[in-house]
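May I ask for a protein sequence together with how it folds?
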Amino acid sequence: MKEIISLLFVACICFSCVDNERNLSEEKESGNDLDLTFDFHLKSKKSLTITAENLSGKLAAGVPFNVYVENPYTDGDRLKDVKPVFTGITDASGSITADMLLPNEVKTIYVSTTYPGYGAMQTCEAANSASLAFGGVNPFVIKETETRGGSENNGEITRKSKICYPGTDNPYQLYTYYAQGIHATLASGLFKDGVSVDPELFSAEDITKISTVVNNMFPERVAVSDEKYFSADYCTDLQITEPVVNDGGVYQGTEIWVTFLGDGGFSDGNWNIFNALCYYTYDSAKGVTAQDAASIRKTMLFPNTNVAKLSSVHAPVVGAKIQLMYWDEARQLYTNIFPAGVSIGWVMVAAQPGQNGAGDAMKNLGNYRFSTPVLNSNSAMPYPGAYTNGIARWSEDAGCNIVGLDYRLHKDPNEFNDMDYNDILIKVESNPMIKPKDEIPVPPVEDTAYKYSVFGTLAFEDNWPSKGDYDFNDFVTDYTYTIVKKTDAEGQLTNEVSAIELTFTPRAQGAVYTSGFGIQLPVATSNVDVSAMSGGILESATTQATVIVYDDIRQSAFNSASGGFVNTVVGGNTAPGVPVKVWIPLKQAITDTGNLFSEFNPFIYVSNRGKEIHLTDMPPTDKVDMKWFGLNSDRSDPEHGVYYRMDNEFPWVLDIPRLRENTDAWIYPVENKEITLAYPKYESWLKDHGILWQKEPNEEFVYKP
């Protein structure tokens, strides 16, 4: 009786999902001439040319750009789960062309750069050919004067107006040594009609020459999270000692200049947020206490650090260079000379939407973000603790300090707390040189910082060259394809690919045949560093790199040794898929502008290695047995590059894209239900490529466990 039941089970399986191999020698089915106008793709090739100009209006090489299919910002913060579909840098001509394979549903693409001085994110239509230009923000107009402040008065500046609201007794007053233009509402700001109100203190600097340094020292979304750097005793404030004297052997004091580099924390959605940047000084030997947070004298440097509003005269301009002044408490005046034994700290007055950092926000000490850790431990802070909000790093190559401040407190549990310390960026120069008290090294930049990915679901019908039951569940797997870009010796991003990363998560196996799954890549087999490869088997004797991911789908993809279907029959056999991450490092990097994804060639092989099934018009590997082409329903024409097409124009493999990794995956048909039943608009799609048939299932015929 058991033998009879087993035979009946096998017979049912063979009827529902496979053709008997005796039919493979049958003549081709009759039909009309093959129509090659439809490619069965749910993705389209798009091209975007990006150009960058520096502050001087010259084409700029080496500027990195990211391209997204969704807005990477929400409520002013970067979404952590939105990854770029392209990452690259401009070449010597100041441009880069990104050739992308995008889901047909994508109508708008988003482009941003982490480099300072290139403004906010831009958008454009996802077109066959499009272009965007990013220009460096022009420096403000400045009179031809010396940058040394008040030289006619021995460097002393006596102007010291307060910034506060009229009629209020504000304990957190900010001070300025600027002659005019700063008042409660900041109606005119530091610049009046685009001209500095105190031109002897201001100059303009082209910062593009240090953009690479800045980007490498404070990379976007690379967190400083090592707890050993967050204590009251660990501080990167700049200390003025007496390491250098003049020719006469007498120390004359230190002069300091600050250049505004931009912000890395805000998008165009934060157009109405105006954080302020101030600085303060204190005795290095005595230090400060938490109680000093309210009383320490904070001198205004920039009342607005929002790069998105740089066109406004209210904002500092990228490249604005200002000489710092030291407040001499004993003489009650500002001077351009900083004495030895003094430390310089920085404070961001963190504004909320609709606020000015030098306006409403300054009235609440809880909005102050200090570089000196102990000042952040005052009870007014929302998450009190001795954690720095500002980091100074010395660059030997640039001969200056780069200071970055972060909007969020170290212990802020907000999911968008990236702790990359680039929400405000400034360059600090001095004569003689001063360096940070302590060093907080740049965190290791994981390769994710230079990756871009595409996501989707592959669905296979395994009865090629016959049509089969056409339920596209014989093997279903989600995938993530990732390109890893190479960096040079200085950590600079390049347009060369150093590795490929593939992730597969199997979801269903609706076939009786023993099948394997692999992928062919647009890389020479000889160029794969096999010794460092992991997660798959690189086949030998192939021209292009061919990786076998699962040599037996049932056993290795689902850990199921028994026969029958897996995750295709409601109430039937279920098993979780076994994810595999394949790492493919290259011996020699290859150039890419974004079109490699279109050449990724996944396939299954059925019963034997020579019977491969690929996406429409994708060529087989060197291991294929050519005898299968042209049999039964197959209308392949290898001589003309035509593969895996039916008389009825249907494919054997579908590649269904997803916008991102956590997007709901495509729901495949249940066993023995043709895709035209599970998705009624499938056939209409053959006439109208723009129909998103895959998003409108017939719930009765799709698999939901």
In short: The CA atoms of residues 99 and 595 lie 5 Å apart. The two ends are 31 Å apart (CA to CA).
